[in-house]
């Protein structure tokens, strides 16, 4: 199994212990549980992961989950995403491809969006200022169908960017 591709493309939950070991990490109960949760709940925060696992693994602290997320991100098993109004970093197991995200400005739901171009970087500035570009992080923002049906798109119901930032900072 190649260590360079996406965990989702290369491994099933039964293979995750091997993937961790290939990256020089021990296959601990906490790491395996976090991977399992993030595989089925992409775009989750550390607090989400900890909240979901705390009953089953009472010795797993919030700091432990932060450490797990950091370690798995550093070796490329997880991808950290920082999105506007998300309140905190989110993590996903979909790595090794060039995909982006769409985020509802009302309920803050986040979904993956495949890149139309395919290869990274999919966008290039007029002047890269002497830098070799590696990627372009794109976040599309909109209103999901459910929020739109519930009137989230009514005039004045969608917060401005400034109001959204204030709201996120208050959390």
Distance between the termini: 41 Å
- What's the average pLDDT? 82
Number of helices, where a helix is a run of at least 4 consecutive DSSP H or I residues: 7
Model regions low in confidence, pLDDT < 50 over at least 5 residues: 1-5, 164-171
Strand content: 5-15%
Strand order of the largest sheet: 4-3-5
Helical content class? 25-40%
Q: What is the overall shape? A: globular
- Total number of beta strands: 5
CA gyration radius, whole angstroms:
18 Å
Order of helices and strands: HHHHHEEEEEHH
Q: Helix/strand/pairing class, anyone?
A: alpha+beta
- Main beta sheet, described? 3 strands, mixed
Brief summary of the model shown:
The protein is built from 7 helices and 5 strands.
Name the features.
single chain; 171 residues; alpha+beta; 3-stranded mixed β-sheet; two-stranded antiparallel ribbon; 5 strands; disordered N terminus; disordered C terminus
Q: What would you say this structure looks like, in words?
A:
The protein is of the alpha+beta class. 35% of the residues lie in helices and 12% in strands. Strand 3 and strand 4 form a beta hairpin. Helix 4 packs across helix 5. The longest helix is centred in the middle third of the chain and has 13 residues. The radius of gyration is 18 Å and the shape is globular.
Task: Chart the SSEs and their pairings.
Blueprint: H1 7-10, H2 16-22, H3 29-40, H4 46-53, H5 62-74, E1 79-81, E2 90-92, E3 99-104, E4 110-114, E5 139-142, H6 145-149, H7 161-170
Parallel strand pairs: 3-5
Antiparallel strand pairs: 1-2, 3-4
Helix pairs in contact: 3-4, 4-5
């Amino acid at each position: 199994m190649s260590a360079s591709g996406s965990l989702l493309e290369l491994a099933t939950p039964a293979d995750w212990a091997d993937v961790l070991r290939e990256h020089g990490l021990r296959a601990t109960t906490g790491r395996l549980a976090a991977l399992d949760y993030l595989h089925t709940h992409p775009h989750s925060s550390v607090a989400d992961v900890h909240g979901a696992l705390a009953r089953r693994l009472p010795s797993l602290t919030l700091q432990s989950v932060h450490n797990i997320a950091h370690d798995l991100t550093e070796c490329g098993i997880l991808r950290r995403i920082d999105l506007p109004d998300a309140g905190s970093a989110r993590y996903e197991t979909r790595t090794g491809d060039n995909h982006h995200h769409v985020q509802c400005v009302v309920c803050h739901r986040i979904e993956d969006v495949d890149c139309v171009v395919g290869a990274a970087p999919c966008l290039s500035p007029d002047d890269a200022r002497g830098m070799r570009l590696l990627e372009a992080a794109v976040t599309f923002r909109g209103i999901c169908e459910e929020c739109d049906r519930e009137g989230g798109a009514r005039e004045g119901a969608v917060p401005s960017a400034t109001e959204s930032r204030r709201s996120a900072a208050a959390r």
